[in-house]
Amino acid sequence: MDDNAVLDYPLAVVFGHLSTPRYLGDWLPQAGAVEDGPGPVDVGHAFSVRFSSDGSEGLAQGELIAYEPPSSVGYRLFVGPRPHVLRVTCTNAGPATRARVHQPDDPTPLVVDLARLGRALQARAARVLVEPAPSKTEAPA
């Protein structure tokens, strides 16, 4: 199963968001709060994420199984007893980025919402635009 979208943001921005576990909820609606493991994001990086499904909530374990910036990242998420694998690829599409999330054939795939990701990127960009610049303090004479 594949989900695809063209997002009006540069490749580095989209890939940075999709490859950061704490932003999983921005494109996986069932994902909630993420407890990120220590260390840099790279293959083997482990994390926990709250997942809701069919009215119940639980803690899922996840890890990055591929990390090839700026184009590809892979996740393995253990939601209950079942592993789910997601392979995310990003490519340039002019000034925009084409994002693709692939899940192997699975009778119950995770819900992917790349339109939601677009809204999250838009909200993040708006926050950056309205944050006040740091005040400059004068050095003592």
What can be said about this structure in brief?
The protein is α+β, with helices and mostly antiparallel strands and 141 residues long.
Proportion of residues in extended strands: 35-45%
Order of helices and strands: EHEEEEEEH
Low-pLDDT stretches are none
- According to CATH, the homologous superfamily is START domain
Compute the separation of the termini in Å.
65 Å
Helix percent band: 10-25%
Instruction: Supply Rg.
Output: 17 Å
**CATH class value:** Alpha Beta
Strand order of the largest sheet: 1-7-6-5-4-3-2
Helices and strands in order:
Blueprint: E1 2-7, H1 11-18, E2 31-36, E3 46-53, E4 56-68, E5 72-79, E6 82-93, E7 96-102, H2 114-130
Antiparallel strand pairs: 1-7, 2-3, 3-4, 4-5, 5-6, 6-7
